[in-house]
Amino acid sequence: MELTERHVEGLKELLYKMADDLLILGHRNSEWTGLGPILEEDIAFSSMAQDKIGQASALYEILHEMGEAAPDTIAFTRNEKDFHCSHLVEMPIGEYDFSLMRHFFYDHADALRFEMLSNCIFDSVSMVARKFRGEIKYHTMHADAWLKQLAHGNEESKARMQSAINEAFPLALGIFEPGNYENELIEAGIFGGEEALKAAWLDKITPIVEAVGLKLPAVSDVTPALGGRKGYHTEHLQPLLDEMTEVFRIDPVAEW
Amino acid sequence: MTIKSLDPRVTRANIDIEAKIGHQENLDQLQTYEVFAQAKRGTHHMHVGSVHAPNSELALMFGKEQYARRGTCVNLWVAKTSDISATEYADDDIFELTSDKFHRDPESYKVMDRIKAYKERQVK
Fold first, then answer.
1. ipTM for this model
2. Among A66, A78, A121, B82, which is disulfide-ready with A82 (CB 3.0 to 4.6 Å)?
C-alpha cells in the first residue's frame, strides 16, 4: 500500500516512545551501579542498563536518518514535555524489589514489542529488532530468575515482591497507552498496535507470575498510569533529566 | 552537615558528616558456583571463574554477564564449588615427573623420526 505522511509520523512517534523509555530506564537502572545487592548482580544490572542506552541510541539513529536531530541532541537537549516515556520508567529506583518488578514488566513488554517489529516493513526497524533479540531475551531471563528466587525466598521476600507487583502493575499498563496513529501503523504492517502488544504481554507474564505463587491485579481493578506518551510526566522526570544532562550542558559542543 | 558529593546519589542519601561508621557484622554470604564457558560447539568447556549466587539458575545469569559478555561463548556450565573434589597441595609431589620413564615421553617413540619429517613437510 501507498505510505502517507501519517504512516511516517506514526513510525516516528513509535520510535520516540520506545527510545525514550529505554534511555530513561537505562539511566534509572544505572543508579544502582555500585549499590547493587551483591557484586555479581551489580555488574549484571549495570550491564543491562548499558544495553538499554545502546538500544535507545540505535533507535534515535533511525530517527536521525528520518530527518530528526542527531541522537545526542535528541537525548540531551529536549524539554521534559518533548519526552514520550511512560511513567513506569520515570519512577525513582526505590527498593530493589520495585526495580526488579519494573525490570520484569518492562523487559517482557520490550521483548514482545521488538518481536512484533522484527517483521516491520521498514528494514532499518526490523534489522534493529532482530539485532537486539538475544540481548533482550537475556534481560527477561534475568528478571524471571530473580522473581522466582524472591517469590520462593521467605515470607518477607514473597510479601515484598507481591507489594512491588501491586505498585508497578498500574504503571506498567501505561506502557501501552495508544498513540495517535495506531490504525495507520497496523494497516500498513509497521507495528501491530499497543492493544495487541498489551494482550500478548498479559498472556506472557500472567503464567510466570502465577507459577511462582504471586498474583497480578485484575486489569479492570487498576487505573493505568497514562499521559507519559503525550508529554505529561510525573514530578520525577525533570530531576532525572537535570542530572542526566548536567555534564553535557557544561559544554554542549565538546567532542567526546 | 551532610556529605556533599560529586556523585548525586551520595548527596541524596543525606549522610551525616559526623556519623560514626560502626563495626559491621559479617553478612551471610551466598554460596559460590564455578563457571565453565564453551567458546564453540564441540570444544571443551573451560573454567573461567566463580560467582556468588543463591541457586544455579541465577549463577548462570551472573556467569553470563561476568564471563561471557565479551568474546564468544555458546554455552555455560555452573557447578557448586562445594561439589568439586580436589587434591591437597600437600600432595603435590604426586605430580612430580621422574625422568627415567622414557616410555611415557613421546620423544622416545620409534616413529618420532617419521612424525618430525611429516611436520617439516607440512611447514614447507
1. 0.89
2. A78
